[in-house]
Design goal:
Order of helices and strands: EEHHHHEHEHHEHEHEH
Number of strands: 7
Helix content: 40-55%
Distance between the termini: 12 Å
Number of helices: 10
Structural class: alpha/beta
Strand order of the largest sheet: 4-1-5-6-7
Strand content: 5-15%
Radius of gyration: 17 Å
Length: 224
């Protein structure tokens, strides 16, 4: 049975340098006419979930998430060249992705809180697009609950490939870990974001790494 490796993006694969957050704030003011007052915690959450909090915090009632996301995507596309300038790949990421891409027993995709178009812009900025089967991914417009993204990704993969998979979720937050556990997936935590190794382990991760710089060890854990 092949492995379906579901990668989180932000602070797991890469750091976007605040480009998407800036686009989010600008798009919000443009579609609502309201000044930005409070920035929520984005880590490990879906864009639908974050959007609901932002709208509630600012008292927005006359705008839909769909309308906001459309403008947000336009803003990101206008500044997508800045991802590579302001951000960076996390240690070892490219080498691990490249090694996994040579294996016939692994399918790699994305499970991320980002809307699909923003997820695509981020990975494209670092020339990672070809590594992932983005069609089967789970995204921040699928549902507010991250565990649902994992479930939908697995269902899409099984429908497309006509086979069952061993699911693996790799992320930097406790939300990634809990989403994996809710779907009986192997949960691998990487402490390249704001969450410590101890916190990831306490959340129930089956394996925790400081980063992916030890490529052989990381690949062994992911495919083990």
């Amino acid at each position: 049975m092949r492995r379906l490796v579901m990668w989180d993006i932000d602070y797991t694969l890469l750091r976007g340098g605040g480009v998407a957050a800036q686009a989010w704030r600008e798009a919000f003011t443009e579609v609502t006419g309201l000044p930005w007052r409070a920035t929520p915690s984005f880590g490990g959450r879906t864009d639908l979930d974050i959007c609901a909090e932002v709208f509630a915090t600012h008292g927005v009632t006359g705008c839909t998430p769909e309308r906001f996301f459309a403008r947000y995507v336009e803003r990101v596309h206008g500044s997508r060249h800045l991802f590579a300038q302001e951000g960076e790949l996390m240690p070892g990421v490219r080498a691990v992705l490249d090694e996994l891409s040579t294996r016939g027993d692994v399918v790699q995709t994305l499970v991320t809180g980002n809307v699909p178009q923003v997820a695509a812009a981020k990975v494209a900025a670092f020339d990672l697009t070809a590594v992932f089967d983005a069609e089967i991914g789970g995204y921040g417009t699928d549902d507010s609950v991250r565990a649902t993204l994992v479930r939908r990704c697995r269902a899409r993969a099984e429908a497309k490939y006509g086979e069952s998979f061993r699911p693996v979720v790799i992320g930097d937050t406790t939300n990634d870990v809990s989403a994996a556990l809710a779907n009986a997936a192997l949960a691998i935590g990487v402490a390249t974001g704001a969450t410590s190794m101890a916190e990831l382990a306490l959340a129930g991760a089956h394996a925790v790494l400081p980063d992916l710089s030890h490529v052989d060890a990381a690949v062994a854990i992911i495919t083990g």
